[in-house]
Specification:
By secondary structure, this protein is mainly α. The radius of gyration is 16 Å and the shape is globular.
Amino acid sequence: MNNPSNFSWPDRIGAAAVYLVPLMEGLVFGTYLFNQFPILQVLFVPLIPLIQIYTTIPFAGLIFFFVLFFAVVRNDSLSRFVRFNGMQAVLLSIILSISSLLLSLFGSGLQSGAPLLLETLVNTLFLGVVAAVGFSLVQCLRGEYPELPGISDAANSQVF
């Protein structure tokens, strides 16, 4: 969309930082993989202070969601690059929230009837979030718009 040299480093870092919100929400889906492969937890050690804040504050996910939406996405004083990435992070969070709701509604039935299916769904959600966030972080730090299929079009239509 834009030449990578057009974005300042504060914009690049700010655009990358917004993806911490969906990453924090997505970590809960990693329990099966973390139990099977404990070495994977090492990748998330730098996030321990943020994880502690996220888990100790009641409704932290909801608070961070609204802060991200109102303070970043709807803040016209920020660059479009930061707001676009904020909107993508909001959309990823919404997808994770809906997935979490559906798993809580149908998860007990899947756990008793098809535990392997439940584990596969949860692992897929976790790996998908980690891949989307990782890709987006790299693209933001490079100063390029991350194009996530389906999500980027929706984010683009919401950010002017």
